[in-house]
């Protein structure tokens, strides 16, 4: 079995996630962009209260023991909180072409069928935008470098679903970065 990188396994509000990320140092691995995913299964309907610690530990068993992976995605985001899974300062496993290059964010929901612009889906979206804005500002990543899992040439499914529109997310991240981090990092298009 591959050497498991471990998990953090803690949940944060958007504000406490921002504070947590400011304590980290990316010295051995530094991501170049962020990849956005959705869980599909479980859907929002299947997790009416979002994720809990036992479910996060179950995901660790799934990735480590069943899949024999070295890591999983970096974040799991639901409508209530942001869960740090794989440490943000090491590469994860989430997208075949981009594992060594990008942070992977899993959003709870099936956005092929569930709404992403209302109800709980909107709350997940807002938490995801907050997390992406924080990570982009701290790491100096340009919001338009964001990729959707379905853009990976080695991926065969439509993750994160048709209801997740990349340009809308990028704009929301840029707007939030300007509001929260004005003067810290310039926002310019990726080269």
Give a quick set of tags describing it.
191 residues; alpha/beta; Lysozyme-like; 6-stranded mixed sheet; 4 helices; 6 strands; 31% helix; globular
Describe the overall structure:
- Strands 1-4-3-5-2-6 form a 6-stranded mixed β-sheet.
- The protein is an alpha/beta fold.
- A hairpin with a 4-residue loop joins strand 3 (75-77) and strand 4.
- It starts with 9 loop residues before the first strand and ends in a 10-residue tail after the last helix.
- The chain has one domain (10-181): Peptidoglycan recognition protein-like (Lysozyme-like, 3-Layer(aba) Sandwich).
- The protein is globular.
- The chain is built from 4 helices and 6 strands.
- The mean pLDDT is 93.
């Amino acid at each position: 079995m591959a050497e498991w990188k471990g998990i953090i396994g803690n949940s944060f509000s958007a504000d406490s996630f921002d504070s947590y990320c400011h304590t980290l140092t990316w010295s051995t691995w530094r991501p170049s962009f962020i990849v956005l995913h959705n869980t599909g299964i479980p859907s929002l309907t299947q997790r009416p209260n979002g994720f809990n610690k036992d479910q996060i530990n179950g995901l660790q068993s799934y990735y480590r023991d069943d899949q024999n992976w070295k890591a999983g995605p970096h974040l799991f985001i639901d409508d209530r909180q942001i869960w740090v899974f794989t440490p943000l300062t090491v590469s994860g496993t989430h997208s075949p072409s981009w594992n060594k290059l990008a942070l992977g964010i899993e959003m709870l929901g099936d956005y092929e069928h569930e709404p992403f612009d209302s109800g709980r889906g909107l709350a997940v979206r807002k938490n995801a935008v907050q997390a992406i804005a924080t990570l982009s500002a701290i790491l100096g990543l340009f919001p338009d470098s964001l990729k959707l899992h379905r853009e990976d040439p080695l991926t065969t499914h439509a993750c994160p679903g048709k209801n997740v529109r990349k340009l809308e997310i990028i704009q929301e991240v840029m707007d939030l970065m300007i509001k929260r981090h004005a003067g810290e990092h310039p926002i310019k298009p990726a080269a």
